[in-house]
Amino acid sequence: MSAAHREARFPRSRRLLRGTQFKRVFDRPERCADACFAIAARRSQSDAPFGGTARLGLAISRKALPHAVDRNRIKRIVREAFRLRRWPCSVDLVVVGRAGLRRAANAEVRQSVEAHFDRIRQRLCGTASAHVPER
After folding, report:
1. pTM to 2 decimals?
2. Phi/psi at 4 (5° precision)
3. pLDDT per residue over 41-71, tens digit each?
C-alpha cells in the first residue's frame, strides 16, 4: 500500500464509535449550526503535543433525510471533507444532519461542512483553515 493511499484512508481510530464518545462531546460542546448541519465539537482527552488526532462522528437521521441513498451521499461528502483537513489539535466532532440537507446540492453541502470545520478549528485549535487541496 502506497503512502498516498494510506493517508487517504479513514481508519477506525479517526472515528467516534461508541455512545460514550458521543456523549462526552455533547456534554460541553463548542457548537455551530446552519440549515444543513449542527456540529458539536470538543477538545479530545488525548491531545498530542505536535498535532492531534481528530475524530469524527456522524448522526444523519431518517427524519432529516428519509432515503438511505441521500444519507449515504451526505456521509461520504462529510467524511471526505474531514479526511482532507489537517487538524493541529485533538478534536472530537459530531456532525448532525438537519432538514436543510433535503434540498441542498453536493457543492452546497461541501461548502457548509468546510465552513463549519474552519469555525471549529479556529475556536478550538486557534488556527486558520488547513484544507488540503485535491490533486
Report:
1. 0.85
2. -65, -40
3. 999 876 444 456 899 999 999 999 999 999 9
Query: Do 55 and 44 touch, CB atoms closer than 8 A?
Result: yes
Handedness of CA 125, 15, 64, 76 (dihedral sign): positive
What are the tens digits of pLDDT across the range 71-101? Answer: 999 999 999 999 998 888 899 999 999 999 9
CA–CA dist 101, 123 (Å, integer) = 25
4 Cβ contact list (under 8 Å, min separation 6): none
Residue 82 φ/ψ region, left for φ over 0, alpha for ψ in the -120 to 50 degree band, beta for the rest: alpha
For residue 100, the cross-strand partners are none
Burial of 7 (C-beta count, 10 Å sphere; 0-12/13-18/19+): exposed
Instruction: Report the amino acid identity of residue 43.
Output: R
